[in-house]
Amino acid sequence: MGFGNNMTSFLLITLCLGIMMKMQDCQAKMVGQCHRAGGKSFVSIYCGHMKMIRINKVLHGTPLGPQDTEMCQSMEGDCIDENISGIYDWSACTGAQSCVQYVKQTQLADCKQKSKYLQVKYDCVSEHKVIDICKTNKKTLQNGFIRSTGYPLNYAQDEHCECKLKTQNGGKITTSIIDLSLLSKKHKCIDWMMLNDQAKEHVHCLHKDINTKTEWDTKLRVYFNAAKRSLKSDNSTVTSKAKGFWLQFTAPADDKVTVTCGPAKTRKPNKSNGNLIFDELNKKTRSSKKATRNSNQKKGGISQSTSSSNSFSSSMQLVFGFTLVTTLIVLL
Predict the structure, then answer these.
(1) Dmax over Cα atoms in the chain, in whole Å?
(2) What letter does residue 172 receive in the DSSP assignment?
(3) Measuring CA to CA, which residue among 281, 183, 268, 164 is closest to residue 226?
(4) Do 173 and 246 contact (CB within 8 A), yes or no?
(5) By Cβ atoms counted within 10 A, which residue in 5, 16, 96, 284 is the most buried?
(6) For residue range 39-79, what is the model confidence (pLDDT) as tens digits?
(7) Distance between CA atoms of 122 and 46, rounded to whole angstroms?
(8) Which has the closest alpha carbon to 238: 183, 191, 286, 283?
(9) What is the SS3 assignment for 129?
(10) pLDDT above 70 (res 220)
C-alpha cells in the first residue's frame, strides 16, 4: 500500500510540474497605469529571466459613469480606443525581459473625452520555445518561434542561415512576424529575411506587416541573409540599430511541425517567381529607377529630334549655297 501511494503521489507531482512548465512557456499578463497631469506616469512591463515580452493589445480608456476613476484598467462601460499603435513605440519592449513605457494622453473620439489610463496586454514567451535560426537544431512543436542570432540585441554580419519547416500530418503552416529590424541603406535592403514554399515567396527587410498572419503549404523555408559589411559602411552610412527578427509559426491543433535549422549557403530571391513580394522600400526603389529611366528616354527623344532638325537645316544650307555658286559660274 505504501509503495502504491508513493507511486501515485510521484505521478501526480510529475503531472503537475509538467502542466506548470507548459503554462510557463507563454504567460499572458496585463498591466495598466493612469495618466497623471502633475507628473510623468509609466507602466512597467516585466517578464524576467529567460522570458521575452510580446505585446498583444494596447488601449487608452476613460471611465464613464460611477466607476472608480483611480482604476487604471478597463472596466465594463468604459470608453476605450484600441487604435493607438502610432502613439507608442514598443520596439524597446518587444523581445526584452523588461521595459518601461510612459503613459500618454489622447482624445477619445467615441466619447469626446481625454484618456485617463493606458492598458497593456502582453505575453511572456519562454526562450526554450524560441529557435535560433543559425544554430544547428531540430525540434518538433505544435507552435513555436524563430529568431535571428542575438535577438533582441544586434545580430552579426556575414551570416546565411535557414530553417526548414514541415508538418507531420499534412497541415498548413501559419506564420506571423512579431518583430523585424534589419539594416538598410537609402533605398536598398542590405539584410533581409525570406519565406517561401512551392507557391509563393515573401522577402522582408523593413519593420512592416507585424503580426500579419500568412498561411503556407505543408513545407516552408525561412532564410536569413546578413551581408558582409566594410568598416567604412558600418561607421558612416549604415544604421547600427538593428535587432534582427522574431517570427512565430503554428500548425493545426491536430498536427506538429518539425523544424530543422542551421547555417546555409548564400541564396537570392527567386525573381522569376510570379508571387514574389518585396517590401515597400524595394518597390519605391524600382519605381524611382523606372521614373528616372523614362525621364532620360524623354530627354533623349527630344535631343534626338533637335539633332535631326539641326542636321536637316545644315543640309539645306549646303544645297542652297552650291546652287548659288553654280548659277554665278554659268552667268560669268
Answers:
(1) 147
(2) P
(3) 183
(4) no
(5) 96
(6) 789 999 999 999 999 999 999 999 987 766 678 989 888 99
(7) 10
(8) 183
(9) helix
(10) yes
User: DSSP state, 169?
Assistant: S
Instruction: Give the whole-angstrom CA distance, residue 247 versus residue 260.
Output: 15
The set of cell numbers assigned to 262 is 542551421
What's CA 264's distance to the chain center, in Å? 22
DSSP string, 206-232: SS-STT-EEEE-SEEEEEEEE----HH
Q: Which residues pair with 224 in a beta bridge?
A: 161, 193
- Cell numbers found for residue 87: 502613439
What is the C-alpha to C-alpha distance for residues 270 and 46, in angstroms, rounded to an integer? 42
Q: Taking residues 202-212, what's their average pLDDT?
A: 78
Evaluate the CA torsion angle 129, 132, 136, 138 in order and state its sign: positive
Q: How many residues does the chain have?
A: 332
Please, is 315 exposed, middle or buried when counting C-beta atoms within 10 Å of its C-beta (0-12, 13-18, 19+)?
exposed
Q: Which amino acid is at 250?
A: T
Cα distance between residue 213 and residue 225, in whole Å: 22
Q: Rounded to two decimals, what is the model's pTM?
A: 0.73
SS3 state at 276 = strand
Residue 178 grid coordinates: 512579431
Q: Which residue has the cell 500579419?
A: 212
What are residue 67's phi and psi, to 5 degrees? -60, 155
Chain-centroid distance of CA 8 in Å reads: 49
Give the pLDDT score at 17. 36
C-alpha grid cell, residue 67 = 466607476
Q: Which of 218, 245, 51, 259 is nearest to 136 (CA)?
A: 259
73 DSSP 8-state letter: S
What DSSP element (H or E) covers 287?
Answer: helix 280-331
- State the cell numbers at 11: 505521478
Please count the helices (runs of H) and the strands (runs of E) in the chain. 3, 22
Q: Which residue has the cell 522600400?
A: 281
191 is written with which cell numbers?
A: 539584410
- Using DSSP's 3-state secondary structure scheme, residue 91 falls into coil
pLDDT per residue over 276-294, tens digit each? 555 544 555 455 555 556 6
Q: What is the DSSP letter of 127?
A: G
81 and 104 Cβ atoms separated by less than 8 Å = no
Q: Is the dihedral of CA 209, 210, 212, 216 positive or negative?
A: positive
